Every structure is written in C-alpha cells, then in structure tokens.
C-alpha cells in the first residue's frame, strides 16, 4: 500500500512489511516481539542493573539519518540487543531497588497491548464511550479498595481520572485551586487576577516530591509563595501541624492568601506520612484546597492494616496514587480522585466547535479532556481493569504484603550489623539506612556512603539510590519490583556488607 | 508468589496467573492477546464506526467492585468483545474520517510493546541512558526528514523531545516564553513578576487548536490577553500578517508586552497554513517567541513537494508535529523541536536531591524531565525509531502521498455533484465541504448539514465530523487512517450522496 515492492516474502520477522498495518503481518511480527520480551524478562538477572555506558555512547553506534528503505524486524531486534540493551538501566530487574519501583506485570502489559490495538483517542465520551465509562468504573473499584469516602466516587458527585503521572495530578488540582481562589479574591477584594495571583500561597512539606515545586512554577505561583514546611526526625519527617498552622497564620497576617496544601502519604525520601486529619482541619479553617499525594504508599492502603495511613483523607479535596509504582499497572497510570470535578472542569475546559456534540452539550456525559492537561488520551483504564481482574484484590493485597514482609526482613538483617544504622522508621517497603561514619568524619559519613552507593551500582549486581535526611546522606532500598523475591534481598544484603567491608578496610 | 493457590493449570489463556510476571505465563497470554488484536484489525470493517451506545451503558454491564479472586484472560476477552467493543468508536477503521487520524501501525505497535517490556522510567539520562540518547537521535532523524535548520537539531545547540500531545508541546514552550519575558520585564521595568505577567499578550489565529487557549489558561495568561486573530476565506483562514502587525502594535501602544505567537501549519478546521516567514519577521521585531504548531500537516512535510508549507520555520523558536496523527506512530507521540533548550530547562527544571547524579551535575547529559511537564516518561522513541526503520523514509513518503491522492480523488468526486460545495481549498488530505443550502434557508444550511453528519454517523458506515468556517457549518472528511484505501473513500462518497438525497427529498 505504501508504494514499495515487496522485497521479502519468506514470512516471519525477517520479511519487510508490505503494508503499514496488515493483520497477518502484524500477527507474525507481534508474536516475534512477544517472544523477545518474554526472553528479556526470563534473562533479566543476567544484565548489570545499572547501565554501564558513557554519555554519547549511542550516537557512535547509529546512523546519522533515517534509512530510505524498509528494514526487517530481525535486524532491528539485533540492534536492540547489541546497542539498546547495554544502555538500559533495568527497572524490572529483581535487583533494582532505586527510587520507587515502576511495576510491569503480565496483566498490565496485556491491557496496554489492548489499548494500543484499539488505538482510540478518548478525549470526549463520544470519541469512544467505553474508554470514559470504563475509566469511571475502575476508578470507583480502586477507590473502594482504598476505602475512600463515597464523595470521591462517581456515586457521590466526585470521581476518578487517570493522569500520566503524579506531577500532572498535582498540577491539575493546583490549577483548580488557583482558579477558585483567584475568582474569590477578585470578587471579594475587587483586585485584578494578577494581584490576586500574587497573594496566593501554597504549602507542602520539605519532604514532598519536587512535582509540587514544578506545579507551582507552571501555575505561576512564585517560589517565594511556596512554603516548604521544614520537617525533622522528631516527627519522622512528617509535617508538624503546629508549625504549619503558625506559618499559615503568619502569612494571613501578612496579607497573603493560603490556597493550597499538598499533604504526603509516603514521601519520596523516606515514605513519611503526614497527619492528614490535623492538616485537613487547618485547610478547612482557611478555605484551602487540601490535596493528598500518596503516589507510592497509597498502593499499600488497599490492605486494611495499612489503611490507617490514609485516615483523614475524608477531609481532603483530592488524592492521587500511582498504580504504576507498586500495583502492577504498567507506567503510566496515576489515579486521581476529586470530590468536586466541576472545579477541575472550570479550570481546564475548552469547548471548540470541532469537538462539540449532543451528549456533551446536554451534560449527559463526562469528557475527561477537561480533567487533564492534554486533549488526547489513551485507553489506559484497560490495563488497570485487567490488573484488578487478573490478580483480584486478594492477589494485589498479597503482592503488597509480600514486599513489606521482605522489607521487614531486610530491616532485621540491618539490625544484626552494628556498622549500619537505620535513618527513619520503616512503614512500608522502603528502608532508609547508612553506614555509621567513622569517628571524627568531617562530612559525617556523606562521602563514605556516597562511595558505597557508587560502588554497589558500578558493579551492577544491584541498583540503589540515595537521599538526604536531616542533612545526612541516606541510602534508600526500595522493595517493590515485580520480580523481586526474598532471595534477591538476601543477596543484596550480602553485596552491601561486602562492599562496606571493602570501603571500611581502605 | 502473590500468595494464591494455582487454580488453573490447563495452560494458555484459560488459566489463572500464578505470578505477577512469569516469563512463560507472560509469553502464553501475550501471544493470545496478539491474536485478539490481529483479529480485531482483520474484522474492523464489520463494526459500526461510531459506537451506538447510550451514556451509562457500561455501568449496567459491569460489577460495582473489583473481584476478590483472579480471573482468566479468556473470560476478560469475552467481556471485551461483548461489553467494551460495542462502546468503541473505531478510530482505526478505514471508514473513520473524523477529527484528524490517529495512526496505529505494525511498527508503532511493536515499538510500544518493546517500551512496555523494558518498563523503564527515563526521567534522567542516568535512569536509562538509551532512552534519552535514542530520543535525541530519532528526533534528529525526523528533523532531517523535515529539512529543519540545523539550529533545531542536537548538532546545532537545539534539540527535539517527545511530548505526549501537541497540548503539552505548546504549553511547555509558552512557559519558556513566559519565563523569559517575565524576567526581562521585571529587570527592565522594576515591576513584580505578577505585574509583568499581567502585561503579557499571546497571539494566535482564531483557527488555532484549542490547546493554545488551554495553555494560556494554565500559564496564567488572562484570556483577555490572548488574541485570537480573526481569519476569513480571503486568506483561506490563515493569519493576515497585516492584521497581526496592527494588533501587536496597538497592544504595545497600550502598554502591553507581546511575548508569544503560535503560528499554524494545518489548522484543525481546514488545514489552513499561516505565512510563517512574515509571522517570523513580526516576532523578531517585537522579541516574541515564535512557535509553529504543525501537528497534522507537518507530517506531510517529509515530502519535498509539501515542504514549502514549512518555509519560514527557520525564523521560529520551536515547532511541534504529531507522528501519532499521520506518521504511523501509535498515540502518544508529539515531537517538539526547540532552538534553545536552555529556556525550557530554565522554566521547568527541578533538581531534588534524590535525583542528583554525577552525569547531570556535570552537565554531561540531557535530562528530559526538564523539557516536559511530568517527571516520569516512557521509552517512546522506540516506536518512532521502529517506524522510521521498518517503513523507511521512502515508505513514509509513499504513505502520505497515497492519502493526499485519495483526498484529491474525493475532491474531484465532490465537484461532479453540484449539490455540494467545497468550503476551503485542499492542501493535504482533508476536504471541507457541505451540502449547498436550499434557497432562503434561514440558518444557511446549518441544520441541513448537521442532519447529514448525524445521519451518516448514526448508520455506522462511516464517521465524519464537522466544524464551522466563516460562520457556516462545514463537514470535514479527513483521510489518513492506516487501513484507508481508495475503495473506502469511493464507498464513503456513495453513502454521502445517498444520505444527501434522502435529506433533500424529505
């Protein structure tokens, strides 16, 4: 169809595609790709976890321009194996303990395939009704697993939506909060919207994810008007309601207008949990939008024993958590629930003539385009639906508990070796620790531990990352990979001990 | 692993998954899904193009909560077939002529599979070097196919990046432009950043995509300060440089500060093309950021005969086009090139301690997290790479030309029937037309043509959408589906003529 002579006809992945999408050519080639990916996962432990390449490595290996003529899949897969795989840091490796996990799974992958196969763009209900309706339903399902109040569900005037990432979730609710606050201020005080914007103050913990900072930059909230409330070990790095209340009161006395608080359930550095209920009371007192970012730890809250960490969420306006982190749903899938979606729509709606339709004009349907930054959107609810069905809530809870149990086991191992210390209490599957510094270490163990992390990552057996807690360099071991089992954490402990011995003997 | 007894062991897709990601279980189930998707595409013409369901249909068919216990893929696929497919509007159908196309392809799908299989999150170079480096390389490849000036490529201080959608591309460049303009104003005039923000004015055509409006809302540019320059048939709905220049000059005289212009190559309503070179001169005169949105028509510009539509792009600061529309790259893939990425980074960078690393700290690498709204990002360059390799630039050009030829053929058919009129000249693969209104039609053919569109979409043979041009209801027939061939457009013409006859005989 695309005007080329058919050059290969031996069939299979060695042939050249003769059509951009012929069902039988697709079938053959996609089967080949399934096997390639299955083999990759089967062999994943054979690769160094962190890529060992140097900056610019790939430019030397690939041509400077696209080829004129079509190439066969098998030739491309050879390049993938020899040129791409060495540049990959293997997030799906059972020995990847960096950042927070990002879960691939069989069910999530199947759902993504199906989404790609349908190839719809579900900006409005009319553009593919099933995409909007399934998303509403599965967000209700997941909201119920989290025991969210009915106000967050479609049965209670609220609703859920899938965003790409927590960054986008936080941004859209901040924009909704900004809109509400600016409108109130311009009306109450008769000032311009820019004067109003200049008065708005947002709050979050100094442990919050950098996406709150980024959302503020994008929303035009001056960084001077973003308060990162300092935390320390005395509250296990969670926000102190007293300090927050004092800060807010001082801002109000200074003529500023508190409009947004992002509370954290499971901070990026140490999985700290803010006291939601107390924060909610402060937000209510000042009329602030209360958002809860539970990107990582929210996943654990599908288990009744972890659900208390979400207590107080009933006082929030919105909540996000990322099933792509730790609930077996391939990236990207960040779920956001809001109590009043009309505020999102007010901040984000556009209604161009080329998208108008009877169902939207008559308010019979939800159009998710108005709940998000982009217009277009994939059919991402399919993967979340398949994950919930193929594992069942029993299976999902068992998955979370298994990782938390392994983390507890690692914590116990750490306690057996007095060279190490734990830097923050463990609540979920993240352990923060470090090598105790030598006496009179001028940088308090910073470079010692930085060297340990670099040594571990360089030899490729495991990947871990770091943070800083209370000014001290801290090693993070985040457990939650789809292939990670007890044996991998035991092996990680052995290499950590061994590298520590090497360093301490230097 | 996740704690369940293995309930099914007959193998294949009827069994229950015993692990969240076992390579062999994955292999079996993914092969089954490949066949499901191949069959869907094989049979795609058997479905009504536009879903025929009513709002709320799916809630009646699915349970209210997630299942406790795992279910088998085959049961889920039965539900997909019986409950989801009826709610799908089949964007990949050869008879889908609505909006603009959104191309699935074999190569694009394979690339997406591979991206999902690796499951990396490439926010920084270090997080998977191959993801960043391949993206830089394939954006250079595509930039060369578009004959972009070297300043837009990595070899010339510029560079490309994959965004999810054109909405995000336009937003990030507007944020970069805002940052630059606000800093200049606060410095030059000694005013606050909020006063500065209140002076900024953005410009685009009234034919521009609604995403420019949305980006302005998000960036805090008052809608009063977004000028939608009126266009009409006299310029084929492209911006008149004279009107733009006058509008800008009047704003400057009024104490406002022009900071951003979005020119359009291929408008959403009629694929109008703005005169880039003249617009670029105006932007230069006033120090405005000049962005070019070529989401749809930019794809055609890989063919030398369409490239003149991009003439003047050398005067732009940035350009986006969407390979997911018409270049066989599965959604989402919107490519953005900028001449000076440091301005993007200045507007969007955050540098939290938990992401710091040697390569980034030493400026040895690009970290795409600072070129986009989200932090996390998929390995989307794989699909664009596979598309360029598996079809070759020869194949991609043939693909575009084929659709444009079919569109020319449809235009000729239209001209044979005097009941119809063409509403705007055809430059690419979009045809804008309508039924001529009856004499003395009080609404000038609006309801007549709206009825025609509804009749066509309701019977399910084809899907088309509408717009309004110069106040007149206009039918859009956009050709560019991966399965669309000449015979489908011939058949569409027959049903259009037939429905028109029905309506006119009423």
TrEMBL record, chains A, B:
Pfam family of this protein, just one?
Pyridoxal_deC
Which is one Gene Ontology cellular component term of this protein?
Answer: cytoplasm
Signal peptide annotation: none
Q: Which CDD domains match?
A: DOPA_deC_like
Please list the residues that carry the modification N6-(pyridoxal phosphate)lysine. Answer: 325
Gene Ontology MF: a single term = carboxy-lyase activity
The protein's required cofactors: pyridoxal 5'-phosphate
> Which PROSITE patterns does the record associate with it?
DDC_GAD_HDC_YDC
- Identify its protein family: Belongs to the group II decarboxylase family.
Q: What is this protein called?
A: Tyrosine decarboxylase
Q: Which organism is it from?
A: Ceratodon purpureus (Fire moss)
């Amino acid at each position: 169809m695309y005007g080329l002579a058919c050059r290969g006809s031996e069939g299979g992945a060695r042939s050249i595609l003769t059509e951009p999408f012929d069902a039988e050519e697709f079938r053959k080639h996609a089967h080949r790709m399934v096997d390639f990916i299955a083999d990759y996962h089967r062999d994943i432990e054979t690769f160094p976890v962190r890529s060992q390449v140097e900056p610019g490595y790939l430019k030397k290996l690939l041509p400077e321009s696209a080829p004129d003529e079509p190439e066969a899949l098998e030739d491309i897969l050879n390049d993938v194996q020899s040129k791409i795989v060495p540049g990959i840091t293997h997030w799906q490796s059972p020995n990847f303990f960096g950042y927070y996990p990002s879960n691939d799974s069989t069910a999530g992958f199947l759902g993504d395939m199906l989404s790609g196969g349908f190839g719809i763009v579900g900006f409005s209900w009319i553009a593919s009704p099933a995409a909007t309706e399934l998303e509403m339903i599965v967000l209700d399902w997941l909201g119920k697993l989290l025991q969210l109040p009915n106000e967050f569900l479609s049965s209670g005037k609220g609703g859920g939506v899938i965003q790409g990432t927590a960054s986008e979730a936080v941004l859209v609710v901040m924009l909704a909060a900004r809109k509400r606050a600016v409108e109130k201020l311009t009306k109450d005080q008769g000032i311009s919207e820019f004067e109003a914007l200049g008065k708005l103050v947002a709050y979050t913990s100094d442990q919050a994810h950098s996406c709150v900072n980024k959302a503020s930059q994008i929303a035009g909230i001056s960084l001077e008007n973003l308060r990162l409330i300092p935390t320390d070990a005395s509250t296990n790095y969670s926000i102190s309601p007293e300090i927050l209340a004092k800060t807010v009161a001082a801002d109000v006395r200074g003529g500023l207008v508190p409009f947004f608080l992002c509370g954290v359930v499971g901070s990026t550095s140490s999985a700290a949990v803010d006291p939601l209920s107390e924060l909610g009371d402060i937000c209510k007192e000042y009329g602030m939008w209360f958002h809860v970012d539970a990107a990582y730890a929210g996943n654990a809250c599908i288990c009744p024993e972890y659900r208390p960490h979400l207590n107080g969420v009933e006082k929030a306006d919105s909540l996000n958590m990322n099933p792509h982190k730790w609930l077996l749903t391939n990236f990207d899938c960040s779920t956001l629930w809001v109590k009043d979606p009309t505020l999102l729509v007010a901040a984000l709606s556009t209604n161009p003539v080329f998208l108008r339709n009877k169902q939207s004009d008559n308010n019979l349907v939800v159009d998710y385009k108005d709940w998000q930054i982009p217009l277009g959107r994939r059919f991402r609810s399919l993967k979340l639906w398949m994950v919930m069905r193929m594992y069942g809530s029993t299976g999902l809870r068992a998955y979370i508990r298994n990782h938390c149990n392994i983390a507890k086991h690692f914590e116990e191992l750490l306690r057996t070796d007095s060279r190490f210390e734990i830097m923050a209490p463990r609540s979920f599957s993240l352990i923060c620790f470090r090598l105790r510094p030598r006496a009179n270490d001028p940088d308090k163990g910073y470079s010692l531990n930085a060297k340990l992390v670099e040594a571990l990552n360089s030899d490729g057996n495991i990947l871990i990352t770091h943070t800083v807690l209370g000014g001290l360099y801290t090693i993070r071991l985040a457990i939650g990979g789809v292939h990670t089992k007890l044996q991998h954490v035991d092996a990680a402990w052995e290499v950590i001990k061994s590298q520590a011995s090497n360093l301490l003997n230097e």
